[in-house]
Amino acid sequence: MVSGSLQYLEPGSFNIVLGQELVNILGVKIGDKITVVIPQASITPVGTMPRLKRFTLSGVFEVGMGEYDRGVALINATDAAKLFRLKGGVTGVRLKLDDMFKAREVSRELVAGLGGLYRVTDWTQQHRNFFSALETEKRMMGIILLLIVAVAAFNIVSTLVMVVNDKRSDIAILMTLGMTPRRIMRVFILQGIIIGIVGTLLGVIGGVLLAVNLEQIISAIETAFNVQFIDPSVYYISKLPSQLRWSDVTVIGTSAFLLCLLATIYPAWIASRTQPAEALRYE
Known about the structure:
Blueprint: E1 3-4, E2 15-19, H1 20-26, E3 33-44, E4 47-61, H2 66-69, E5 73-75, H3 77-84, H4 103-114, H5 123-126, H6 128-166, H7 168-176, H8 181-212, H9 214-225, H10 246-263, H11 265-272, H12 276-279
Parallel strand pairs: 2-4
Antiparallel strand pairs: 1-4, 2-5, 3-4
Helix pairs in contact: 6-10, 6-11, 8-10, 8-11
């Protein structure tokens, strides 16, 4: 609640609570009168007139989703029944679940129990296209980020190849002293593993800190530069939420480390193929 309270929605008070964006569009404030028109007509001596009622604005809420902040009005159930002439009845019941991801399962149970006289919908059906688009976008973003990590892993390849070329004479000396190609390969793989572990740890720590404080960082940037990254009139949300999932962190960190490990195999193989005679010819 931005202002006011839901407790003011008492039976017979004809108070109303609106979303923040709708209040801004109407240009009203707490205590102002608002005329509510419903899609029902009344027969009067002057003809058919739309049914309307004056309400008093007693509260303003904001949930951060434009569809609700500019399209939802709350009134007392008794007042709504009088307005729609339902004689104390209601047209629907909304359930709030402790686990929102069980909505589809609960809706199926209700459909099986209530029969065909009732219509049951849940949030996954109301915005199916939106959530399908988000799922596709998340999958594509994962692939793109994985490719970015793969490109970064090539830096390890180039770095180790330069090290091999720079240390060819040292590698040749070690081989003349009895070091086998397999051990030479292990040395460079170990060097790549150390680079991968350090880089992955730094990336994971930085990513976790950014994800945990993302909302505060974006809010500070918006305040400092007077910009708005997400316009609620265009998108469904007005803020960019961030939820840290350790399963995703584990997958990302493991994938990055494995790519680093794979990137060390080729330079290590080149180092193991060094010929001491050719490397020490001009030394």
